[in-house]
Amino acid sequence: MPATRALVPLVLLMALQVLVCSGACVEVDSGTEAVANLGFKLGCISCKMRGEVKATASVTWFFQASDDDVSSELYTYAEREGKVMDPRFYGRLHWNGSKNTEDLQDGSIYILNVTFNDTGTYQCNFRRMLIYSNSKYETNPNKTITLKVVPRVTRGMASIMSEVMMYVSIIGLQLWLLVEMIYCYRKISAAGEEALRESALGKNWRRDGFSLAPSSSSSSPPSS
Fold first, then answer.
1. Cβ count within 10 A of residue 100
2. Under a CB-based contact definition with an 8 Å cutoff, are residues 34 and 41 in contact?
3. Could you tell me if 18 and 134 are in contact, meaning their C-beta atoms sit under 8 angstroms apart?
4. Positive or negative, the Cα torsion across 182, 188, 194, 199?
5. DSSP alpha helices (H): ranges in the chain?
6. Looking at residue 52, what is its pLDDT?
7. Is the pTM of this model over 0.70?
8. How far is CA 36 from CA 33, 87, 118, in A?
């Protein structure tokens, strides 16, 4: 148990170092279910593998409605400026990604006042230029999101599983605390029993020592 407790800070420190080394960038999948008449964030994160390499990036979004055969350009963001390209989203679409930098890693956008016509497939395309000391290298990561618009909030399987895992974690933690308490109780109990035994032995030694002194003097030969 002491070894386990000693490992916890080490694991937390290693996790913190990983986040720092990666620039705290984590590629989280976007949600896929929006509620009509509410806002919704279309998440698109593309982490740069080597944070020390300078880079510039632009993001282009495409949208294909559920009743369309082809996709159309929806939104572009480059050189810290964004532009809505699809008239269906005029006044309803805003940049929600990386700000105050041209080295984009978060290309998310936010839709205001979602409608059922927003159901369809969205594609987020990055165009990243990695700038090395003697060369440049272009990468084009992309993400595809299939969005469904519902009339009200529904609990998806992911939400249910998250809640189940939360309860499992709580039960597991309680069991671990119970085992720890039993271990500590047994350790304290054993230490108490050992102290009682030592105390009893000490009393017996003192009692036997005092009783032997008179008997040894009485057994000595009488003086002539």
1. 5
2. no
3. no
4. negative
5. 2-21, 157-218
6. 84
7. no
8. 10, 19, 9
Query: Measured between alpha carbons, how far is 138 from 45 in angstroms, rounded to an integer?
Result: 17
Q: What tokens appear for 144 in the block?
A: 């595809």
% residues pLDDT > 70 (the chain): 77
The residue written with tokens 């593309």 in the block is 46
Provide CATH code, domain 29-153. Answer: 2.60.40.10
**What is the C-alpha separation between 100 and 46, in angstroms, rounded?**
17
Tokens 């016509």 map to which residue?
117
Residue 3 φ then ψ, to 5°: -65, -40
CA angle 147, 153, 157 (to 5 degrees): 70
Q: Would you give the DSSP letter of residue 10?
A: H
In order, the DSSP letters of 110-158 are EESS--GGG-EEEEEEEEEEEE-SS-EEEE--EEEEEEEEESS----HH
CA 183/CA 170 separation, integer angstroms: 20
CB 131 within 8 A of CB 86: no
Q: Is pLDDT at 89 greater than 70 in this prediction?
A: yes
Produce one character per residue of 7-37: b if its CB has 16 or more CB atoms within 10 Å, e if not: eeeeeeeeeeeeeeeeeebeeeebeeebeee
Q: Count of CB atoms within 10 A of residue 203's CB?
A: 10
With CA atoms as reference, report the closest residue to 139 among 223, 56, 51.
56
